[in-house]
Design a protein that fits this description.
GO terms for molecular function: dynein intermediate chain binding; dynein light intermediate chain binding; minus-end-directed microtubule motor activity. This protein has helices spanning about 5-20, 35-45, 65-70, 80-100, 105-120, 155-160, 175-185, 195-210; strands at about 20-25, 50-55. It is mainly alpha-helical and about 240 residues long. The radius of gyration is 21 Å and the shape is elongated.
Length: about 240
């Protein structure tokens, strides 16, 4: 769910309710103001006995209490940590996509998966109060965000479409400034509202979008082993 998808959702709801299909609505915490409309439409519908509606949301104080009381609730806590985050990314995209990438595309996919994991996991450390001089930030002294930003799978997918797939073109030279602009100005940076947080994002990108990241010398996240140059992988 997201802004502008409400009418399509109601149409899908009407079809699923009439024909007895199952419907899944994700990220409802982004559209809590719209949930009363969803409830009203549900009340007016003649629902097929096989119809099921799955609602997926993160905890939010504005979530409809009516929906919450009338639903069977299942709580799932996503495993924390950068490693688990990267594993989820690879599992969700699957081997069929990743193994089609050339060596450069495979490396870029991993770089973006690392960045995505870092940006999401840093939300654990908010709020941090007054931030220091950004020019003095190092790899070991970066702080969390000033607020919780909704970095999600759609952001990662957009970054992949705009970067990795472009790099599938034979003999193309990587323009790190372009990749930084995509992530900092368009994708992740588009959600950030604080100039200091933008500086932190830029600091991360400046350490990952470098020529060394495409070589065996690169050691992201303190890894002691070098990254493989092939795209075949196995999630463990």
């Amino acid at each position: 769910m997201g802004e502008g998808q409400e009418s399509k959702t109601l149409a899908a709801l009407a079809e699923a309710g009439e024909q007895g299909h199952w419907l899944v609505l994700k990220n409802l915490h982004l559209v809590t103001a719209w949930l009363p409309i969803l409830c009203q439409n549900m009340k007016r519908m003649q629902l097929h006995k096989s119809f099921r509606l799955w609602l997926i949301t993160e905890p939010h104080p504005g979530f409809s209490s009516v929906l919450a009381r009338s639903s069977l609730k299942i709580a799932y806590e996503v495993p924390q940590g950068i490693k688990n985050n990267i594993l989820r990314t690879y599992s969700s995209w699957g081997t069929s996509y990743i193994e089609k990438l050339n060596p450069t595309g495979s490396r870029l996919f991993f770089i973006l998966a690392c960045i995505h994991a870092l940006l999401q996991e840093r939300r654990t450390y908010i709020p941090q109060g007054k931030l220091p001089d950004l020019s003095k930030l190092t790899h070991y002294s970066m702080l969390g965000w000033s607020k919780s930003y909704e970095f999600n799978d759609t952001d990662f997918s957009t970054a992949i479409r705009l970067t990795v797939e472009l790099m599938q073109t034979p003999n193309i030279q990587i323009q790190w400034n372009y990749l930084t602009g995509v992530c900092c100005d368009s994708v992740y940076g588009g959600r950030i509202e604080n100039i200091q947080d933008l500086g932190i994002l830029d600091s991360y990108l400046s350490q990952y979008f470098v020529d060394e990241a495409l070589t065996h010398r690169w050691r992201p996240l303190g890894m002691s082993n070098s990254l493989p140059s092939y795209s075949n992988f196995q999630v463990r």
